[in-house]
Structure of Response regulator:
Amino acid sequence: MAGLSETNGFGKKRIMIVDHNEEEQKTVKKMLGEEYEVLVAETGLQDFSG
């Protein structure tokens, strides 16, 4: 699992989680979702392809 963090312009930081496992994605979103905007991609290429 990899992640990237940046501010989304509204004060809440945005984190991208790259993980093919849906359960891991859900766990991370649940853990961080209140404090961060969590974006999910199954592969690193998925993020860059739009």
